[in-house]
Design a protein that fits this description.
69% of the residues lie in helices and 0% in strands. It is an all-alpha fold. It has two domains: 31 residues; 48 residues, no CATH class. The longest helix is centred in the first third of the chain and has 18 residues.
């Protein structure tokens, strides 16, 4: 099909075939694209407390990430605790 489409070109396709291809593109993007919530959540879990950063500053930074998308308190708390720097000494 793709070889045939390449030879004929998209301008020679009838409207029904163009609609099918457009519907396929939309369905493909919907199925295989990351939702913005997931991207922001992944970024939030990558945030770690810096050595020179206070707990308050770290918490404020993570809460600003959480405000961008609708993340529940349990997820925010888990991200917060997993990113704390271990203070030994």
């Amino acid at each position: 099909m793709l070889v045939k489409m390449h030879k004929t070109g998209p301008k020679k396709l009838d409207d029904a075939q163009k609609n099918i291809i457009d519907q396929f593109k939309v369905a493909f993007k919907y199925r295989f694209s990351k939702p913005p919530v997931l991207c922001c959540a992944c970024e939030m879990f990558r945030q770690k407390q810096a050595d020179s950063e206070t707990v308050d500053a770290y918490t404020k930074r993570l809460r600003s990430f959480a405000k961008r998308v609708d993340i529940d308190d349990a997820t925010l708390l888990y991200a917060l605790f997993s990113g704390f720097a271990s203070k030994t000494g």
